Structure formats: structure tokens, C-alpha cells
């Protein structure tokens, strides 16, 4: 697997990323988590590893109208690349599905263990300290306000993460742990979500006192 990992990494090094929250360090963290989950769940590493490396090989900004198609575009591009380096064609359908299903925007339910693992690994990177950091980076990149000036924590209004970065916690981030598929991912996701609640409590003290 070292050869395919290096080939995928080289391919991603030369890729254009949607934003600095979806850069090579994000890819590397997703790969690391996916490997750990795959080993615990006894999944097919020949599917999980290339899918994890290539899951964001097409760059589409979070607020772009083609965002829902991004994972399908990435899956197509990934398979074309894997064909070009002579990778095992029997793995292509599974890799393609895992990449398509990893995305929130695509709204595709993962049907295989390998797809569940890639999705879990990618979503894990939206949680905890790294998740808070990445959320803020994306918000800055698309020029969202940090929070609503009168109701920062959506206590009396509907959350709107197109305008306010903090609203993204209430729409998406705090619910990710409930959507994890593998037992190992569920446990880690709960720990990271607890940290995010602590972060929000501290922020609340700082901006409302």
C-alpha cells in the first residue's frame, strides 16, 4: 500500500484545494483516522486508503452552487487517476462510492463498511479543536460574520450559517457524533463534541458578560 499512498499523496500535492480548511493537512488527518478505523473494523484498506487520500481531489467552495456535485466529480477524477497508474480495477466501484458518500452536501447514504469509514474519518475532522479551527477558517474564507450580534447562540431565531459562522455549530457540527457509523468513531466523536460544548460555553461568557 505504500506505493499507492505515495502516488495519491503526490497527486494531491499538485491539486487545487477549495480553501485552507480542506488542504493537504486535512487530507492527511482523514487518511490517518480512516486507517485506524479500518484496522479496528477489519475493512478493506485497498479501498479505504485511496478513497481517503482522494476524497477532496476536486475543489469546490462551500458556498458554490456546484457543491452538491463535488464528491461525484472527485470520485470520477479519482478513478481516472487510479486507472492511469494501473490500480486494481476491481476496487474502483467501491472507491468511487466511498468518495461520493463522504460528503454532507451530496446526501448519499454509504452502503459499504469502507464508505462508512471514509465518511466517519472525514466528519471526525470537523469536530474537536481542529473542527473549531477549520470552521472559523471556512467562515473567514467566505466572508461570514462570526455571530449574530443580538442572538449569537440561536436561542430565539433559526440558525443561518450562510451569514454567521457560529450558527454552523447548531446546524451541523454538534450533531455529527450522532451520525457516525462505526463504534470507534462514535466514541471519539462524543469526546470531541464535548470539547466543542466547552468552547461554546467559554465563548458565551466572553461575548455576553
Amino acid at each position: 500500500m505504500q506505493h499507492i499512498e505515495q502516488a495519491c499523496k503526490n497527486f494531491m500535492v499538485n491539486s487545487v484545494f477549495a480553501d485552507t480548511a480542506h488542504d493537504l493537512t486535512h487530507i492527511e488527518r482523514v487518511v490517518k483516522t480512516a486507517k485506524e478505523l479500518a484496522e479496528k473494523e477489519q475493512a478493506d484498506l485497498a479501498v479505504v486508503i485511496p478513497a481517503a487520500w482522494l476524497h477532496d481531489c476536486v475543489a469546490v467552495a462551500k458556498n458554490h452552487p456546484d457543491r452538491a456535485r463535488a464528491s461525484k466529480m472527485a470520485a470520477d477524477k479519482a478513478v481516472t487517476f487510479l486507472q492511469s497508474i494501473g490500480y486494481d480495477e476491481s476496487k474502483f466501484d467501491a472507491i468511487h462510492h466511498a468518495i461520493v458518500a463522504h460528503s454532507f452536501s451530496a446526501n448519499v447514504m454509504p452502503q459499504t463498511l469502507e464508505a462508512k469509514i471514509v465518511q466517519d474519518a472525514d466528519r471526525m475532522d470537523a469536530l474537536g479543536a481542529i473542527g473549531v479551527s477549520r470552521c472559523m477558517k471556512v467562515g473567514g474564507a467566505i466572508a461570514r460574520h462570526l455571530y449574530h450580534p443580538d442572538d449569537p447562540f440561536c436561542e430565539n431565531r433559526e440558525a443561518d450559517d450562510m451569514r454567521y459562522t457560529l450558527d454552523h455549530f447548531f446546524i451541523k457540527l454538534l450533531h455529527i457524533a450522532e451520525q457516525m457509523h462505526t463504534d470507534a468513531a462514535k466514541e471519539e466523536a462524543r469526546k470531541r463534541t464535548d470539547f466543542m460544548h466547552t468552547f461554546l460555553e467559554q465563548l458565551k461568557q466572553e461575548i455576553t458578560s
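The chain has nine helices and no strands. The first helix runs from residue 2 to 13.
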